[in-house]
Amino acid sequence: EMHPVLFSRLVDRRTRGQKVTIIDLTTRRTRTSDLADRVLFFKPHGDLAIALGIARILVKNASFDRAFVEAHCNFRQLGAPPEGGGLPPMLGEPMTFEQFAAALEPYTPEHCAELSGVSADDIRMLGALFERRDTKINSLWCMGMNQHTRGTAINCLVHAIHLLSGHFGKPGDAATSLTGQPSACGTAREVGTLCHLLPGGLAVANPEHRAWCEEHWNLEPGSLNPNIGYHAVELFKRFCTPTAEGGDITTIWVQVTNPGHTIPNLNRNFGPKKDLSDKFLIVSDVYPTATTAVADLVLPSAMWVEKHGMFGNSERRTQQWFKMVEPPGQARDDCWQTIAVSRRLLEMGVETMRDKDGAWLFHTQDARGREVPIWDWAHYYDVNVDERLFEEYRAFGRHKHKNLAPYSEYVAARGLRWPVVEQPDGSWRETRWRFSGFDDPFVERGRDFQFYHSVTKDDRALIWFRPYEAPPEVPDADYPFWLCTGRVLEHWHTGTMTRRIPQLHRAMPKAYVEMNRQDATRLGVNTGDNVTIRSRRGRIELPVWIGGRGDPKEGEVFVPFFEETRLINEVTNDAYDPYSKQPDYKK
Questions:
Q1: Are 289 and 258 in contact (CB under 8 A)?
Q2: Which end of the chain is less congested by CB atoms within 10 angstroms, N or C?
Q3: Residues 220 and 331 grouped into a single domain
Q4: What is the pLDDT of residues 342-361, one digit of tens each?
């Protein structure tokens, strides 16, 4: 339902007679469940226990891929918190295999069954699958694993299982995290828009990385702020706190997202904005949204087909396209908006808009050496700004062997998977399987795998131990239900675009709450009745859909988050993973 193109490829292989077994581990029934060979329902947050149980089976039976592990892996665990409090360092500390095995010992199939709700026999079945060498295993997951207070831990453990078993880095053997939206990799992570990153995977906190960026951008040494920025929940929490009470963020410019709809605990982390006169919110968007509704300035933006652009997707594929239609009215490219604001700041005397030679940061010349006023919309497309920015950006990727081809190669090839390396004949070759000796050009000759640029500086992957963690909230007498939010097939995220498509709006016109039949009978409600969904943070009214598409188990309800007139994120918990900072939306 959330990745229909990819999933259709799996189903197509099975339809053509190939042996493909699909096992769906989930807390609620989905369309994936309908096509799966086995469906294993687990308790909310129980996937950690399942993963720990599988890892213990591999170690206890000595059925892990010993040769692969000894040649290519290290073991890791979180260390002690620093003196004075705070989180244990994210990079953790080394542990021996014996320590790893001892840490796993309590997670017997029976104990993991108690924690997860999946039977001990089914946990043994999963362990036996990973023990096999005559089959390929590809684990696929999306936000259902990531958007939890223990999302980092379960991601580490799933990779640990694949590394332990040797089901890694070969065709058909992989741990595959699917991004939550198109180009989340390419135009967020890779290019450095996260609060702790610089382009190409370089880190804000690393002085050598900052120094290289300053040299590349021709900036004065020390120009780049060494402090990591605030993550999204903290950013808006500070923005929506009065300045006199410590709210040190006074201005936010939002592009290509809708936090007024999606930030958890909206009543605390976004709602107060409308009453704070000293806070200024700028929003670039295509359509009116819950965020533009309280914006102080709205900049109408061009759609993706109305501008040049690049995508980067889950398989490391970078794709280019040219503008197909003109944007309507005053709508402009997001990129142009940024450049135009930079130019206006320069004209206002903001000296940080100049490089160390005194030139404007986005100074652009044509083939004859004449300046092109790209800050003027009438001249923005006199040159291909995207191409020039991409050629500048390419240099960042070389630091971590994320090499990219010239812009013209993407125009010709319609997509290449990095690292892309020039060949002796002048052609450019993409990489299908990274870190593998048979395909990755940066793996040293004669090695089957090489996890180059590992944080331990020894070309080894990390097998993490992370213990089971309880959820941040559990049902009680006052709040007896688990709440899970998510998408539906018809609508993309907050429905900003899809709810304006008549066919999709007719197919799914409003949000609802899926409820188990036994729960509905006990409460005396029927499909179509309005009920109040209430948490410690807020309340909304929604119509009941008994069973619904997901047929939730007793004690669980599901609400999609696409409808902007009834915002389920007024109810959701703003607890977040301490490392990834992703909120606890899912169950």
A1: yes
A2: N
A3: yes
A4: 999 999 999 999 999 999 99
Q: Domain for residue 473, yes or no?
A: no
Q: Which burial class, exposed, middle or buried, applies to 267 when counting CB atoms under 10 A from its CB (0-12, 13-18, 19+)?
A: middle
Helix, strand, or coil (residue 354): strand
3-state secondary structure of 44: coil
The CA distance from 165 to 93, in Å, is 22
State the residue for tokens 């053997």: 173
Q: Quick check: is 416 in a domain?
A: yes
Q: How far is CA 474 from the centre of its chain?
A: 25
Are residues 165 and 136 part of one domain? yes
Does residue 414 carry a pLDDT above 90?
A: no
Phi, psi (deg, nearest 5) at residue 344: -65, -40
Within this chain, do residues 157 and 244 fall inside the same structural domain, yes or no?
no
Report the run of H or E that residue 532 belongs to, with start and end: strand 530-534
525 token code pair: 């409600």
CB 264, CB 573: distance < 8 Å:
yes
**pLDDT > 90? residue 185:** no
Upstream peptide bond of 44 is cis (omega within 30 degrees of 0): no
How many other C-beta atoms can be found within 10 angstroms of the C-beta atom of residue 221? 10
The per-residue pLDDT for 85 is 81
Contacts of 460 (CB under 8 A, 6+ apart): 72, 73, 74, 451, 454
Indicate if 414 and 493 belong to the same structural domain: no
Residue 40, H or E segment: strand 38-41
The C-alpha angle 243, 247, 253, rounded to 5 degrees, equals 100
| Domain extent at residue 266 | 185-313+317-429
Beta bridge mates, 282: 253, 297
Q: Are strands 309-312 and 317-321 parallel, antiparallel or unpaired?
A: antiparallel
Q: Which domain CATH number covers 537? A: 2.40.40.20
Give the domain CATH number at 144: 3.40.228.10
* DSSP helix/strand/coil, 334: helix
488, 550 Cβ separation under 8 angstroms: no
- 16-57 pLDDT, tens digit per residue, is 999 999 999 999 999 999 999 999 999 999 999 999 999 999
419 preceded by a cis bond (ω within 30 of 0): yes
What is the total count of domains within the chain? Answer: 3
- Is there a single domain that holds both residue 156 and residue 190? no
Residue 6 is predicted with a pLDDT of 87
DSSP 168: -
> What's the chain's length in residues?
587
Contacts of 177 (CB under 8 A, 6+ apart): 141, 142, 145, 146, 155, 314
Q: What is the pLDDT of residue 86?
A: 86
**Do 139 and 227 fall into the same domain?**
no
Report the predicted TM-score, pTM, of the whole model to 2 decimal places.
Answer: 0.94
DSSP 201: G
72 and 153: one domain?
A: yes
In a domain, 435, yes or no: no
CATH number of the domain where residue 335 is located: 3.40.50.740
Tokens of 125: 């079945």
Residue 83, pLDDT > 90, answer no
Residue 578 zone, left/alpha/beta (φ > 0; ψ -120 to 50; rest):
alpha
Q: What is the CA radius of gyration of the chain?
A: 25
Question: Do 273 and 344 fall into the same domain?
Answer: yes
